Amino acid sequence: MKQSKRYANEKILVLGLARSGVAAAKLLHELGAFVTVNDAKKLEDNKEAQELLEAGITVITDGHPLDLLDEGFSLIVKNPGIPYTNPILEKAIKKHIPIITEVELAYQVSEAPFIGITGTNGKTTTTTMIKQIIDTYQPNKALLAGNIGFPASDVVVKATKNNVLVTELSSFQLMGIDEFRPRIAVITNIYEAHIDYHGTRDEYVKAKWRIQRNMTKDDTLILNGDLPELVSLSQESNASIVYFSVTKKVNGAYLENGCLMYQDDKIMEASELGVPGSHNVENALAAICVTKVSGVDNESIKKSLSLFSGVPHRTEYIGTYDGVKVYNDSKATNILAAKKAISGFDNEQLVLIAGGLDRGNSFDEFIPTIERLKAIILLGETKEKLKEAAEKAQVSEIICVNNMKEAVKEALKVAQSEDTILLSPACASWDMYPNFETRGEEFVAEITKQVGK
């Protein structure tokens, strides 16, 4: 980490805690700033706030008082999840107080360069693939950071100029960057998402596109060449553009005759990937672009991608029991993600577990994807809607259940040797679970319990 005096004796407000807020507060404190932390939770219910208080940092909890901004702060570092419509942020904007997210803070003091990965789907898997490939080629060089669970403000403290920060970035984080400049950036794809936060799809796209705002021709921007929107936007970037595609040959990485290629050079067979699904072919091609631009050899890429077993809750291979393969794709919180996961399997030997929070959408677009399924097991608020879609798709066995325990029990009854059980809900988890991770963990626990292994 750079020994920066930039924030020494500056009064800075860290708004919102969780992991990123704690990391930002500690880093600013170490840099000599006068830090005030403000979090909506009450102090007695707020272990993070108590920890910072013990470290000598000023902590204000139980709401966001507007008069707090009368303290003369020169900067606000906000939790990415707090919208700019929050009254305290609206007041800060009127007072012309700069607002950043902690990834910007980390960038400002980092000795290590950044690889930034964003997109609607595939960010975490692509980020993890890149890290593992670099590890295979040069152990201990790559450090995971960002939205993947490792706040960049924590990671930069131990990073040196010999490291590289492989950083997953959300649209929320990117709205709060200023100087941030990744040497390599990836946009895996852009679809409609987070409209409740951004207001419109255009604003969401603008937030994602900010990843390249400070890049120059000496930097590389890697884009999904199958999305006309991104190809069009590429004309607005100063970065050098490299594409990946599953439909055509491009200047970069592409799928050709079942092979993953880079600039006319065969890397590996797509069938050799350690994880199934067309979406993982896309993720792998994006990772190939990043690592080839970084100078990694083909053998290291092939070895790493062949051994890649997935990320927890993202088409994660759980095991094979009496000849039945089991995958956990709890992260498939929308129809598009589930469609991509299902595409990696033979429907006639697939037992799908789906359902969850009802967001008011229909499942008509899901019908072609679930045709010829061996069975579909449905739970949650959407089970009746999904049942209608499954009937239209003429799925021969449709089973509605009340909970994950029953879902796993029925799946294990139906599945035979050479079949696959896949949890890919196509819905959010909040009707039954606090998050998709808890849903996936219960699925894995029930599989383990019921197969007796």
Automatic annotation (TrEMBL):
Signal peptide: none annotated. Its main location: cytoplasm. ATP binds at residues 119-125. Pfam families: Mur_ligase_C (PF02875), Mur_ligase_M (PF08245), MurD-like_N (PF21799). GO terms for biological process: cell division; cell wall organization; peptidoglycan biosynthetic process; regulation of cell shape. Its EC number is 6.3.2.9. Residues 313-427 form the Mur ligase C-terminal domain. It catalyses: UDP-N-acetyl-alpha-D-muramoyl-L-alanine + D-glutamate + ATP = UDP-N-acetyl-alpha-D-muramoyl-L-alanyl-D-glutamate + ADP + phosphate + H(+). PROSITE patterns: FOLYLPOLYGLU_SYNT_1. Cell wall formation. Catalyzes the addition of glutamate to the nucleotide precursor UDP-N-acetylmuramoyl-L-alanine (UMA). This is UDP-N-acetylmuramoylalanine--D-glutamate ligase. The gene is murD.
